[in-house]
């Protein structure tokens, strides 16, 4: 069993997922064993690439974008495995399908929460664009009216950024519900079923880890950080243990007393705080270049932020579509067999 991280309380869902996934006697054919090992080794390789090369990469748009892209690839890998297993949906156990459908709708809810926060951050950028336009110092110093308007916009931006997003706040309970469902339903005497459930377990663990890191980055609170403990029998256990330890450790360090731990947002916030006093009522810009320097600095930070925001938004949308299409494909297959209807749509 992988080690418990110092200062972290390992999360164990109700029941024993290890016993469910690794029954005492598991006999797999060479073909199935090859498929399982290949999937788990690929998962381990993807996790190794998630290891931050520099602590400054956590939590940044670049790392988050790569993490979401990695999560998309992992969810695609499980679809490929299902096809290779040649295990038609009609042969899935009802409990497997219930878990899959329940987890997928929770992941969709998390994606919606992330998208709402990314949209909110994008709206905040519009306020700062107004500031840049009003304080365009390329030709002449701004008027007192322009300074006043800029001061108001900066004030609105700070209020908006410090406000809580209830959808992000709700992610914590959703993530705990996902973690609580990690103990798989009892697997019947099906070798293919055991391979499928073990692979799905890996996908679910990594999904929780990545989404937990995202929720923390957006909320600025380490309360959403989850430390999952997995069995050493998994080929990807060490890679997961290492990346989780590094990322969660840095998140906890960054979240101490900070409003935001998202690197690019923190950089923009720092620029705003430098510019804010220069636009206060009654002030007038001096000719020492401080205003121009502050405006240019804000513009540079905004460009980096906007670019990172755009890339991350696209990856989150891609993940949403992967989960949604997988869910829809399963439901379509079930309906064609007259099996079940989606309980979430009843």
Automatic annotation (TrEMBL):
Domain of life from the UniProt record: Eukaryota
InterPro entries cross-referenced by the UniProt entry: BPS1_pln
Pfam families tied to this protein: BPS1 (PF03087)
GO terms classed as biological process: root development; shoot system development
Protein name: Protein BPS1, chloroplastic
Biological source species: Aquilegia coerulea (Rocky mountain columbine)
